[in-house]
Amino acid sequence: MKKCGILFSGGKDSVYSAYLAKKQNYEISCLISIFSKNKESYMFHTPSISKVKQQARVMEIPLIIQKTLGKKEHELIDLEKAIKNAKEQYDIKAIFTGALASVYQASRIKKICNKLDLECFNPLWQKNEIELLNELIQNKFKIIITGVFAYPLDQSWLGREINKDFIKETIKLQEKYKIHPAGEGGEFETFVLDCPLFKKPLEIINKKIFGKDYSWAMEIEVK
Question: Fewer Cβ within 10 Å of end Cβ, the chain: N or C?
Fold first, then answer.
């Protein structure tokens, strides 16, 4: 069984890529998370990134954390450092990512993997976004919205679960406002509270909401 590392943000795409890696009979040896100080980072962004620690705990998988200032291109040096650390520490042979449509992200991760002689897999690449959301529901992923960053999404969307009603609404938003149904255009951020990889579901015990207009985020505490 080949060992792999997962580039892990705690959102739906990275967690689902881990799920697919396991389905393909890879051993998930570690999760790799980048904590960026730049909320406008081109590569790494999620309002509740620090909560990956709790996700790693309920997945019972080691977590590698790498901090970065989040400066464009310079943050790739920190990503390479984290992946190299994972290779040396856990003898991984491949990296899985949740890249769906961002050529910027996928190409740069691929370049780092090539340099470190690792295989790079993007199992969600170019997947239809509605199809992806339906698969997540079918596979019993419990996902909430933790950030919205595009009109007409507002504060009321924070904490909403991705379910059939959510999909119906985002299809309408796609038709009217060109919103990407799975948030691939950066319209919203997500956090996974439960999925088949978790030994037990996570529960929100506190939350803090901040923002204005059509840019809102929710920091959560989970147990």
Answer: N
pLDDT at 73: 76
Q: What single DSSP character describes residue 85? A: H
The per-residue DSSP string of 19-70 comes to HHHHHTT-EEEEEEEEEES-TT-SS---TTGGGHHHHHHHHT--EEEEEE--
Of the candidates 1, 12, 94, 2, which has an alpha carbon nearest to the alpha carbon of residue 46? 12
Minimal CA–CA distance to 189: which of 3, 11, 8? 11
Residue 107: Cβ-neighbour burial (10 angstroms; 0-12, 13-18, 19+): exposed
State the architecture of 3-121 in CATH terms: 3-Layer(aba) Sandwich (3.40)
pLDDT tens digits for 123-149? Answer: 999 999 999 999 999 999 999 999 999
Sheet architecture: strand order including 63-68 = 63-68, 27-36, 3-7, 94-96, 119-121
CATH of 143-222, one of 3.30.200.20, 3.40.190.100, 3.90.1490.10, 3.30.390.60: 3.90.1490.10
